[in-house]
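User: Structure please.
Assistant: Input sequence and predicted structure:
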Amino acid sequence: MKEVENKVILPLDGVDYRQACRLIDELHNEIGIFKVGFEMISRGYAGQICEYANSIGKSVFWDGKFHDIPATVAKASGIIANLPGVRMFNFHCLGGESMIAEAVKAAQEASAIRKERVMVLGVTILTSMTYANARRVGLFQQYEEFVYLNFPSDRESTEEDTLHAELVLERIEELVADLALMAKDSGADGVICSPQEIRVVRQTCGDDFVIVTPAVRPAGADHNDQARVMTPTQAIQLGANYLVIGRPILQPGSGTPLDAAKRINDEIAQALTA
């Protein structure tokens, strides 16, 4: 069960400190890593949750998504990597090579002191991002001229729309792969990417590179605010190392969170042996 349980990262969102501790107690046999994000950090609970999880032998993913000048990120990375229970933390790859290298260096120094390795992960493109979102912030400027010339917005829908959709996905994959390779070359352990980009990241960065993927939904579950989703079986078979699964466990369609976690772990176990 150990291999399966450590595949799932559970976000502790929408709860206070006591509720988070109760969830850790309830799910500790099924979940290996618990994630604290902006909500917990902003409420001031994140450090306490790290201490509590560590006290019962569980790990935490500190989802702070650092993105600032290298010196600032280095200081923040050193603080987080020294916290008890923290197994991994992240930054935005768009912060650039120098920022990533400083985060990695700070984490390595903290790991040496703790005598426990802390993984440093890069966020590529948020899973809520669609192509339309990305183009508004200028991530596909070189592609825009091609799209405008070949697929003008005032034309009638044609079979060429299928080609357009495929090209859009290719552009997103290429950007994610470039960011992942930059993170790897700068010393990062892995990246967070949508399930749709697992294959290209694995091909680009190799078997030892860690891939964490959110936007994982069991078949039939609501996609909520995620734009690029996949089932646990599909994500595992493509090569994901860890799956971030929140609402399908915390707000299951039937049964308790523990029941939902067990169902997902059963699905992962079958995918690992397929």
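The longest helix spans residues 160-185.
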